[in-house]
Amino acid sequence: FALATNSQQSTTLRNGYLPKGIAILFSLGLLSVTAYQGFYEYEWHRIAHKSLGGQTVQMLPRYKKFHTHLRYKDLFLYNYAAELNVAGDYEKSLQIARECYLLWADYDLQMLMAENCLQLQDYKETENCLMAAAAMCPIKFMPLYQLTELYLKTGQKLEARRLAQKILDKKVKVPSQVINSIKSKMRNLLNESDSLNDSSQMIIHDFNPITTFQWQDCPLDLRTPRALLPT
Q: Taking all residues of the chain, what is their mean pLDDT, rounded to a whole number?
């Protein structure tokens, strides 16, 4: 009887320890994954700041390495795609941006994808991305402005003039120098009524996102944010 009692108590103890052991192992595993994830995010922040400081090309191999571990982080994917764009690797940038799009539908992401498509001369997809960006943020003027530039570049002059008038009629929620410049450009375009060919030649079509181009005396900066880091 004593042996049976001890055996029963031993079985109870073993059965009680088993779930606790599993819980401890699970907790340790989760803690390890969290620690590794925190390490990679910390390192990503470091290389992002270095890249913004002018070391983009040097940091790209490290971005590629961290992509394996942070490929489900939407902000990492956006930052990686933006840095590839700055480095001139538009095809790879577009690939990473599309990965990001599966996780995150965002205005800045659409603008970045539009820039990549434009550099790759995929004008239809450029138009689609700019229209999507305009739909996401109706108060923004830049997507409509870049659509106007795209239509002029591709010879759709009547469509460009129609959009220019829409921009002029658009109400301004938050006044800024950028919006004033855009409206001035659109006004100049519509005033060129004698020759649309002349008006299209007056635009310097430099769509590089890291430069500023001018139409007459109205400068505009078309750069999209390169890093959206969590605080």
A: 81
Task: To the nearest 10°, report the CA torsion of 56, 61, 62, 67.
Answer: 110
Q: Which residues lie closer than 8 Å to 213 by C-beta, 6 or more apart?
A: 204, 205, 206, 207, 219, 220, 222
> Higher-confidence residue: 187 or 14?
187
Place of tokens 């375009």: 189
- Provide the sign of the torsion angle of the four alpha carbons 99, 102, 108, 111, taken in this order: positive
Tokens describing residue 77: 């994917």
Quote the CA–CA distance of 160 and 188 in Å, as a whole number: 12
Q: What region, left, alpha or beta, does residue 121 occupy, with left being phi > 0 and alpha being psi -120 to 50 degrees?
A: left
> Within its chain, how far is the Cα of 63 from the centroid?
15
- Bridge partners of 148, per DSSP, are none
**pTM above the 0.85 mark?**
no
Nearest CA-CA partner of 229 in 85, 83, 60 = 83
- Give residue 60's Cα distance to chain centre: 16
Q: How many CA atoms lie within 13 A of 78 on its CB side?
A: 22
Name residue 215's beta-bridge partners. Answer: 203, 218
Per-residue model confidence (pLDDT) at position 210 = 31
Burial 36-50 (b: 16+ CB within 10 A, else e): eeeebbeebeebbee
Report pLDDT digits (tens) over 20-47. 666 555 554 545 556 667 888 999 999 9
The tens digit of pLDDT for each residue in 135-172 reads: 999 999 999 999 999 999 999 999 999 999 999 999 99
Instruction: Give the per-residue pLDDT at 67.
Output: 96
